Amino acid sequence: MTLTFPHIDPVAIAVGPVHIRWYALAYLAGILLGWLYIRRQIMRMETPPLSKKQLEDLIFWAVVGVMLGGRLGYVLFYNAPYYLAHLQEIPMVWQGGMSFHGGMIGVIVAFFFFCKKQGLAFWRVMDLAATATPIGLFFGRLANFINGELFGRVTDSPLGMVFPRGGPVARHPSQLYEAALEGVLLFVVLYGVSHHTKAYDRPRLLSGLFLAGYGMARFSVEFFREPDIQLGFLAFGLSMGQLLSLPMILLGAYLMARSRPSAPAPA
Q1: DSSP state of 120
Q2: Region for 248 from its dihedrals, namely left if φ exceeds 0, alpha if ψ lies in -120 to 50, beta otherwise
Q3: pLDDT at 264 exceeding the cut of 60
Q4: From CA 202, how far away is CA 262, in angstroms rounded?
Q5: Separation between Cα atoms, residue 236 and residue 123, nearest integer Å
Q6: Rounded distance, CA 85 to CA 227, Å?
Q7: Distance between CA atoms of 233 and 226, rounded to whole angstroms?
Q8: For residue 225, what are the β-bridge partners?
């Protein structure tokens, strides 16, 4: 027995030649809800790390960081030989191919320069942003599922599902596993720590918790996810996603160890 793939049209809205895909709506939902969530946290903080106006400007920088970093990360980490031979296709994000690890690096770089420009404490801003990031991850993984992409490995588990692009065999719906772990569970953990402890008084703590939490969630789910066909398994039988997640776990642990109550956060 297997679960039935819902066969949802990847195009959510079609008006004449204009097609709006679920993937685009997932990005918009993640950005909008993330902005609202951070805005609400700012309103309840005695000394927020940035103003509402600065938050609006920061969202633009975040979008640029995600798009540039996510695309370049995919090109470099997952398919460099192909794109070196087809340079004109690098900007064609509508054809698919985004990397979370690349997008994360892009956002970190964008936030660093934004905080420098605005005179803000970098780690306090990063901690705030970290608490909202799982929202975007949740919607992104749901979009992956709707598109029938990034599916899991072959399984005889009752959770197995036959994906249109995955052949006639049942596979793990690994996109839903990632939505649950990277999205829901990580959000709940960060929410609990940020709302019920004095985490914001310890710069780097929430950023480190996010990095370590995402890294562990991604590393675990990759055991159920089909590796990228152009890469397969790499060193020690691990996937590229797992190899990229290991430094995140180590960096996250380091940042949490470096966090100190009321410690000044360098910009």
Answers
A1: -
A2: alpha
A3: no
A4: 6
A5: 34
A6: 22
A7: 10
A8: 152
Answer for the pair 133, 31: CB distance below 8 angstroms, yes or no. no
| Spatial separation of the C-alpha atoms in residues 209 and 147, rounded to whole Å | 30
Contacts of 74 (CB under 8 A, 6+ apart): 97, 98, 99, 102
> Both tokens of residue 78?
């997952």
* pLDDT (0 to 100) of residue 1: 67
Average pLDDT for 180-189: 97
Residue-wise DSSP of 190-249: HHHHHHHS-GGGSTTHHHHHHHHHHHHHHHHHTTTBPPPTTT---GGG--HHHHHHHHHH
Task: Read off the tokens for 265.
Answer: 């956060």
> CA 155, CA 160: separation in Å to the nearest integer?
6
Q: Judge whether 101 and 73 are in contact, CB under 8 Å.
A: yes
Distances in whole angstroms, Cα of residue 183 to Cα of each of 2, 22, 30, 153, 214 = 25, 17, 11, 21, 9
Q: How far apart are CA 101 and CA 85, in angstroms?
A: 23
pLDDT digits (tens, 9 = 90+) for 54-68: 999 999 999 999 999
pLDDT score of 93: 76
pLDDT, one tens digit per residue, over 217-231 is 999 999 999 998 888
Euclidean distance between CA atoms 161 and 208, whole angstroms: 35
Q: Taking a C-beta distance cutoff of 8 angstroms, is the pair 143, 26 a contact?
A: yes
**Calpha distance 25→11 (Å, rounded):** 10
* pTM metric for this prediction: 0.91
Question: Is the Cα dihedral 230, 107, 195, 255 positive or negative?
Answer: positive
